[in-house]
Every structure is written in structure tokens, then in C-alpha cells.
Amino acid sequence: MAVNVLERSTMKPISNATALTVLLIAMTLPNYLLADEGMWLFNALPVEHLKSTYGVEPTEQWTEHLMKSSVRFNVGGSASFVSSNGLVLTNHHVGSDTLAKLSTPENNYLKDGFLAKTTAEELRAPDLELNQLINIEDVTEKVNARIDTHMDDATAALERRKIIGEIEQAAKDSSGLRSNVVTLFGGGRYHLYQYKKYTDVRLVWAPESAAAFFGGDFDNFNYPRFCLDACIFRVYENEQPAVIEHFLAWSKNGPAKGEVVFVSGNPGRTSRIFTVDALKTERDHMLPYSLDYFRRREILLQQYSLRGVEEARQAKDDLFGIQNARKLYTGKLQGLQDPAIMKAKIEAEQRLRKQIATDPALARYDQAFDTIKEIQTKKIARLGTGVRISSQLFEIAQTLVQMAEEDTKPSAQRLPEFRDSSRESLEQQLFSSAPIYKGLDQALLADSIARTVELLGADSEVCQKMLGGVSPVQLATDAIYGTRLDDIEYRKQLAAGAMEAIKTSGDPMIRLAQAVDDHVRAEQKESEELRETQRQAYAAIAEALFATEGTTTYPDATFTLRLAFGPVKGYELNGQQIPAWTTMGAAFEHSENHEGLEDYELPNSWIENKTNINLDTPYNFVSTADIIGGNSGSPVVNKDLELVGLIFDGNLQSLPSDYQYDDRQSRSISVHSSAIREALLYIYDASHVANQLGK
Amino acid sequence: MAVNVLERSTMKPISNATALTVLLIAMTLPNYLLADEGMWLFNALPVEHLKSTYGVEPTEQWTEHLMKSSVRFNVGGSASFVSSNGLVLTNHHVGSDTLAKLSTPENNYLKDGFLAKTTAEELRAPDLELNQLINIEDVTEKVNARIDTHMDDATAALERRKIIGEIEQAAKDSSGLRSNVVTLFGGGRYHLYQYKKYTDVRLVWAPESAAAFFGGDFDNFNYPRFCLDACIFRVYENEQPAVIEHFLAWSKNGPAKGEVVFVSGNPGRTSRIFTVDALKTERDHMLPYSLDYFRRREILLQQYSLRGVEEARQAKDDLFGIQNARKLYTGKLQGLQDPAIMKAKIEAEQRLRKQIATDPALARYDQAFDTIKEIQTKKIARLGTGVRISSQLFEIAQTLVQMAEEDTKPSAQRLPEFRDSSRESLEQQLFSSAPIYKGLDQALLADSIARTVELLGADSEVCQKMLGGVSPVQLATDAIYGTRLDDIEYRKQLAAGAMEAIKTSGDPMIRLAQAVDDHVRAEQKESEELRETQRQAYAAIAEALFATEGTTTYPDATFTLRLAFGPVKGYELNGQQIPAWTTMGAAFEHSENHEGLEDYELPNSWIENKTNINLDTPYNFVSTADIIGGNSGSPVVNKDLELVGLIFDGNLQSLPSDYQYDDRQSRSISVHSSAIREALLYIYDASHVANQLGK
Fold first, then answer.
1. What is the ipTM of this complex?
2. pLDDT tens profile A538-555
3. How far apart are CA A9 and CA A542, in angstroms?
4. B597 to chain A, minimum CA–CA distance in Å?
5. What is the pTM of this model?
């Protein structure tokens, strides 16, 4: 019986906050999954499959050790503990947000790299929060307990938000841990994730961006690759390096060709459950819309960078982020525009709907497909109807304005980010000492106001109210150079003063946030209702899928910890065999082959130390492990849980994997552990760091 | 009486092909014009205004000499004859299309500049056509003779196209001149323009792009400026330098501060007659749509350039063009988003409509405003509904496919570009030996097919037919690497073989052009009908304007020869006085102030010859002359018709002048004649060229 399938499945809670109980799954994989497909929940690993396919048996200890050695960067990214004294390994491009915030015109750590000779020299990040997953619990029944099918979607959404708020608050109160309820299977399951937080995080080592992002935007998402996309932080507690129980040992030689490896990280978002109608909306509307925005912002940041060397430095990290997104979305769209990929999706859906149609017990799930179809029309109509303002100072103002309003309600009824259980994380961001560049922020604000005016029409009520008779450029200039929100103390005053302080502030940026707040809230509400409708429909589709195709599977990515795996393995492209790994020596050749292009200039540290390093050291390698954005910085381990690599990218062929996994050419790309060690020892003069790794 | 106003006005023919008769206009300017506003028709100059304001009297000889010394670059741009032996002066950025086509991986003339030591070394442009205006004739009555108000717009459009075709053919047959009927006042008048064509055009001198486009994309449209945006061609006849009767003398010292100067060039397009409804469509729909496209193409060309130094060279000129357009449109949009500008437009329109309403003789014009309003809805609905494919090889294929079809009709009934009277110009482009880079063309084709799929939806009939079951990237790759259209002989064969050859060609690019042809033609037809409706409405509005505001005015720009004027004059910006001109010496300072930015590196020729030049030589200057895109390369002359400068840009404040002229801060920017001479003599070792100037 379909309804009970999920209850019999593997979604059981890990029942207490310190010990981990993993159910051993004896069932085989559903037939629609490829061998290495899957971003598996840590409380529902495909144990039997791993045993039969790779001879690896993830025991409770194995799983707990890997889970607790894994680290999430809350800004978006993954990492791992790699020493007993708190060293955290992640990608340079995950650490880059902090590197940029720590940089000054005099010390450009993002570009030039950084090395602390002693712990005293380690630099504290202004607003990093790292999370270590401690516990997972299935709370689906609790979340659904007060929801019934007679509620309209607005009521259901409000009620669900309230229940989730209560669960999170109770969990935090009893454990002291960061507690978040995660929606899985598009609404089929709700799990409570509990994390230990680290908020004192310090920079230990970063290479030059020329080494980390060698080959630049063109090589990004390409393979073969030659990037030292790594950096090292250290977590502190009570002003001392934290003592870490679960950390990864450092592999002596890294993986062999064909050896299975495991990736433990936080994939951000996938859309594999999407119906064909939803995919077509992505293809014909959502992705083109996002790409227009990315390109717009990319050009804007480039324009700002042309003003001067210092301005280029200020914009660099944002520019990288937006270029990365633009390239990623371009690849996703190309995937959906490929009739072969869409055909596979159509056929799978037809198969499922046919099975539903022939089984009276499943018939009620069919309606879900029509619901999703109806939602598409609404989604398309809503595209570009929101206020799309973004600038650092505006976002601070918006947070303060919304917080004052939300704080008048009981915690559980607030928008999620304003609940008491999230206040500490929110304030870390809100009162961050990260630099704000007013010139850059003016450019971002002016353009995003102009974009809002374009999307909503200059004569629309909200735009007229927002602009107050001046041009977007003028409004932005007045707000940026008139606001006091760059002063952290003033932010704290406003936050402490609550609604009264906001109402009487007179700060032009606060006024701007107030002017659009009604529109923003109305949009958030509609959006939440639509998501609720969608959640209920996808929950039904998930149930139908389990009932027809098998019971052991993985949900779409949710920026929570997952396990992926697969062998280290090259692939064929246009008749050529692409080898599984590159070497450090080949990086020099790659540079020579691109003479005259700035992005292919290796830093001096590499050129000067070329004779000191073993040029045959494996540098980057590919595997079939199923990853996506958010996995950046994930540790890659062998079956003995030794660190053999560091995920930093997927190849171009992997970009459509948001929608569909493919093991023919799609590959995840890692920095080889030996290259990190070799570089620390013989390029960066950082033996004191290298010697702590895995110890 | 309103109807007769225009007939009494100045739109009289210049009645024969060699002599010029200019009517002296005794009337004062309409009160809504600013002193230096206007892109004046050469057969309707504001003679009295020039006399009373600037003490300059343009005689027949004066006007004819300036008109015949002026040159139009058909690729888009203006120029002038500057010697008796055929030297033509224009902007580097007007010549850049040819510079790029003449460049090779070994000789990058676009980047490194060029100098012919002798006429034998002058390089023939592969497909340049230069036009010298010889005659203007008012053919309004002829064009309207067979149009009556009972015709529906489709019939009227077809009929008008036919009549214009007949007029052009007859004019060409009798004179041998290139003959084009130009729509003025949005449809209020039709003039026949006749040109002598020069198709053997050779490159004489061009500076490095680092000197011509010093300051790059950031300084573009900015002022103060320091650009040697100039290059020199020579026209040939019968393999000899052409003997030129009308050419401009070279001023000894250039203009004085406050001196009035004249600009004779071909402004491309303005929209000053647009109603408020039309301007709002521009602001909220058309400009944002175009900008999305420009940014998309800019990123695409940047991406292609990242592939390598040679690829960057191939894409450079296209990239400049698109960046220029993106910056221009951004400024136009900012203008329309400025409530102050829109307010002035609204008030002017309200004033006009009120006057119409109070005068029974004018009442019938009011309907035109509603017609324009109705058109906006259609225009917005049509946005993005067309096939938007662009690549060099695709455009060749499309021309061949359409030509075969059009050639089955009588000449006068064809689409304008396929008439017999235009065949020579068409073939010069179609059979051009300009290089085609298949890698670049594949990137352009793939992206523009993908864009078409995004705009029309992948499941639309035309996209399904176009794609034939493969992805956009695959389709583009197959067409680019499968076509034979890069072979000029094959193009000639297909052109000669007409419809039969096209039908049986089997060439994949021809097939692609055929697959979308029905859709393209349907769109062209709808578009032409809409334009006809619009023409009739704007013609009525123009009549109303003449009747109420005055009879002597200028029509919106149409890429035909116009005269603009105004004093050399600085302006105030943010409380600072911006001086009227810069000096060559200040270019070195500007470079030093932007150390570390590639766009501000002066070429070696400048650095090496710094001590040889007079650093006080005026370099760039501004005037209030009313110009717009297309004016690039226009000669700037003093009242004695000596060349004192070379238009190359407008400042940022001038960008909204598409919609409204403003003389407070809006300025045209020119290269000073003395700087051109100084550079030729003391930087580029080109005294043999400098010595021919003005002689």
C-alpha cells in the first residue's frame, strides 16, 4: 500500500543528540537510479548497495565519524575538520567571502593569499558561522498533525510555519543546538536537523586567487583542471583553538584509479522531482529570467571595477559569484534545451502516470500533476512582479524594518529568520563588522532600483511611492550617502529600539525599506502560499514514486548533509579519453599554452618554487559522485575515512544534474589531498600547517 | 490653416542633381526650440536664426560646399573629404569595422594601428561603401498620391512600398546615383536623397586603439576625454585616388572658446516626436528588452574572448560595438526614468493637445495620440515574438533565401533591400571577402538560436521546426561546420541559381534560414503594418505641431545629412566647471592617475614621442551642437568651412537627447583638428599624410 511505504522506509530519526543510530538498509536501489546516483540522507544510507557494489559497509561508527567530521559554511558551502585542534579545510571560493571581508586596500588577501605563522596571527572572520551536524529526527507527523486537507493553502502555510517554529524553539531550548526543520521530498517528509555552531572562526591559510582560480571564468566548470581551490580556517572556543573529537585523517597517497570515494557535504538545491511542466517553466521562463539578471549584475560589477584598482578589489568576490552563477545557469538551461534530456524526463513521467492510472489505490496522486501544472501559470505570471532591490545597506535596513514588525508577534508565528531560535545567527550578520563600500553599494542600489522600476513600470503605485519624484540614481545616491546604517552602533540602537525607533528614525535607507515593505510582504505571502500548494503536490508525487518505483531513495538537495559516492574515473569526450587526474606539473604547461591571457598566469610563488615541488603530484581528479552547488568544499574520503580530496566543482557536462544525474560524462572535480600537502610544504612555506593535518 | 502650413514651409526640393538651391528662411525658430537645438535638413536650414544669433549666413555656395564635402559611411557613421586627392577623415570607431576585417592574427591593425607610407601600401577595404549627398527632392505628393485614408494599413503599407520603389528606380535610372526615399517627420514628409557612391575605399592611417579609445569602456561617453578617435581612408576611382572637388580646408588653430561651430553629419535616429505613451513604452519595455540583449551578447563575446588571444582579437570590434550600445541605452533609460525629463514631455504634450482641442480646425489630429497609444499595446505584445538569430553565416543564408523569393516579384514590390536599385550595395555586402571566424560565428549562432528558443518557447511550432530534434548548440555546430557559405564562389552560385538553387542546395545553413523564413516574413509584415499605422499618426501629430508651434523646424534623425551647430563651451557639473577642452599633455596625466588599469595605458608611440609633441595642443573639446549616434566622424567646421574638429562622442548628459535636447550639460565631443595634425607629424611619422590635409 502506497501510503505506508514511506513509513516503512528509512526515514527514521537519529534519536538523541549525541549518539547516531543508522538503520541498515537491506533493500536494493529503485530501478530508476543509476549506480552512483544519489545525495543520500545520513539517516538513510543505501548500505546494502554500497556493500554489494563497492564492498564498503558504512557502520554506525563510520557514519557518525564522517557526519561529525563534516562542516557546513552557513554562507553556502561545505568543509571538514582536519585536525584535533580545530583546522577546517574548505575551498578558496567558499572562504572567499571572508577573505574579501578581511582584505583592505593595503592587504588584498583574496588576491595575494594569506598565511598565519602562529595561531596569534590567525585572522578572525567578521561574520562566519560554521555548523556541525549532531542529530537528525523525523518530525513529519508533528508537522502534519494540525494540517488537514480542508484548509486553504494560505491557512495551511501559516499553520505549518507556526508548528515548525514551535518544534525548532523547543529543540533549541532543550539542547542549546541550532535547530532547523528541513522539508524533504518537496514536502513528503520533515526532518529536524540539529547543529553545534562555531562562530569564532579564524583564517589560517589561503593561496593566491591566481592559484585557486587558475584559468578563471573560462576554465571554471571545465576539465581537465589545475586549481588549488583550497583554504584553511580554524575554529575557536573561549579564545582557544577548539578541541575536535571527530576529524578526518589525511591519506598518505590519495585515491587509486577506479577506487570508490565518498563525498560528505551539503548540496544546495536540486530539482529532480520536478514534473515535466515544471521543467518547461524552468526552461522557458525561470532560467532565462535569472540569466538576464546575472548578466546585468555581472556587467554592473565589471563597470564598477573599471573605475579603479581599488574598486576592482572591492567588487571581485561578488563578481566571481555572479560569473559562477551565470555559467552554471547557462549550463542548466542548455541541459533543458537538449531534447534528449527532456525526452528522458517525459518518458519517466509518462511511465509513472501510467502506473498510477492502472492502480486504483494510487489514482488520487494523479491530481498532483495537474496542480503542479496550474502552479506554473501562476509562477510565470508572478515573474518580475516583486521589488528587486539589493545592496548591503538596503538589506540591513530591510532586516531592521521587518524585524521590528515581526517582533510584535509571538516567535513561532514570525517569518522563519526572525524567530527567537534564529536570532543569534541573524544578529551575527546584522551587526557584522565586514566593510561596506559606499561607492559599490550605490551602484548596486541604483541599478536594482532601476531594475525594479523596469519590471513593475515607473508609473506603478509602489514605484511612485518608492521614488518620491526623483530618479532611481538620485534616490540611491541620497539613501547611500545619507544613511547612518554603516555605523554598527546605530544598527544596534535601531534594533534595540524596535518599532518605535524604526518609525521615528528618519534615516533615508530605513525610509526606502519602509516604502516598499507592504509590497515585499504581500509578495512573500503569495509566494509562501504557492510553495505550500506545491509542497502538498510534490509530497503526493513522492508517495506515488515510492509506491511504484521502490522505497529506498534520496530526496532533492536541501543544503543539508548528504553522502555521495562513486569511483575516481575519467570519461570520453568527442572521441578523446579525458584522464581521471591532472598533475601539478601540467599546470605549468597549461599556463604556457595560454600565454598572453591573464587568467592563466601562475603566481610567483609557483614559478619560484617550480623546482622544489614534485611535478608528478596528482593535482585535480574527477569521480562520478553525485554533487551540486553547496557541495563546494566537501571532503572526499576513502572507505577508511581518510581525506583524499576536496570537492570544488563539477564539469560542464554535470551542470544539468540539477534535473537529472548522468554518469557517462558528468563528473565532480576535486583537489587531490597530496597537492594540498605538497603546496603547503614546498610552495607556501607552511609546514607548520601541513604537519597539523589529520592529527 | 494647418494643412497648408507644411506646404508653405521650407521642404522644397533641391531641384537638380548638381546645383543646390537653398531657400533662405526668414522666419524665426518655433518657441519650443532651444537656441542650438536641431538636426537641420540641408534644404531647410534656419538661415535667419544663424544670422541673428551667430552672425553667420549660409549661402548657397556655403551649403553646397559643406554638403558635398560630407561623407556617409554606409556601415553607420559620418566623415568628410579633407583633400583634393580623396582623403576621407572619420573616427577610428567608424573605421574599426574595416580595420577588423583587414586584420589578421599576424597584423592586428585594429589594435596596433596602420600607416601606408605610399599610396601603393594603402589597403583596400573589403566591403565599404561611402556616400556623398548630391541632391534632395521632396516627393511627398508622389508618395501619397495613391494612398487614401480608406485603405487598411496593410494595403497602404504595400502600396507605399511599391510607390517608393518606383520613385527610387526611376531616379537611379535617370541619374545613375544611389537613390533613397527617406521618411521624415515620422511620415509627414518623404524626400528623395541621391548619392554618389564610392566603393573603392582604402585605409591610409589609423592610430592604435589604445590612443583612439583611451580610457576604454569607462571613459566612453564621459568628459573630459583624451581620445585620438580618428583614422583616414582614401577613395579611389578607376584604381586612382579620386579627384575631389569639394573638400574641407584644414583650420590653422581650431576654434576659439565660445566660437560657433557647425557639424555636418548623419545622425542615426532620434525619437523626439514620440508621444508620452510611446516614451513610456520605451522606458518600461523597449529599452529594458534591448539592454537584456546587449548584456547577453556582451557576456557572450567576453566569454569567446577568454578562449585565447586570437579569439579576443576576432571578437574585439563586435565587443566594442555592443558595449557602446549597452552604455548608450543605459543612459537613454536613465533619462526616461528621470521624472524631470518625463514631466517636461508630459507638459509639452498636454499643451499641444489643449491647443488642438480649442481649435476646431485641428480637432481631427487628436485621434493620432490615441492611435499611438493603441499601437503601444501591440508593440509590447510583439516584443520577443520574433526569430532572433544572428551570425555572419546565417545572415548570408537568410539574404540568399529571401533574395531568391523576392526576385520572383517585380522590383518595386520587393522588400526595399532587394530592389534592383539596391542590388549593387547588397551584393557588395553579400560577396564581401571579409573574414568569417567559424568559432566566433558558432558561438553567436548557438546563443541566438538558444535565445529564440527562450523567447518563443522550446515547444513552439517554429522552434520545433527549426531545431528538428537537436539542441540549439548542436544545431549551430552542425550548420556552421557543415555550410559552404564561407566560400564566396558558392554564394555567387546560389545567388545566380535563384530559387531553384536555394531549393536544392541542401546546405545546412540555407536549410536553417528556410526553416524560419515563414515566421520571419510574417513578423516583417506585421511590423510593416504597424509602422504604417504609426507613420500616419505621427504625420498628423507633425502637422498639428507645425500648425500650433511654428513652421520652421527639423525632423527626427534618419541617418541622412543634417546640420547642427553651437558654440564651443564647457559646463557645470556637481558644482565644478568642466572646461571646453583638454590637452594632449593632460592625456599623460590621465594615464598616470589610472595606474594599473589596462584601458589607461597609452601606446608606446605616445610614450616615446612625449617630448616631441607640444603638450599644450588642444586635444578634445565640447560644443552644444545637437548630435546623436551616426554623427560619429562628422566634420566640425567654423563659419569659413575650415575643419576644426571631428565629432566622436556625446557626454553622459547627452544620452537622453534621443528624446529631448538640452543645452545645460549635454555636449558633443570632438577631436581637435590640431591634435590630429600634431599626432600625424610627431607621433605617427606621417608628415606625408598631414601635408595632404586640406590641399
1. 0.92
2. 999 998 988 887 667 899
3. 13
4. 7
5. 0.93
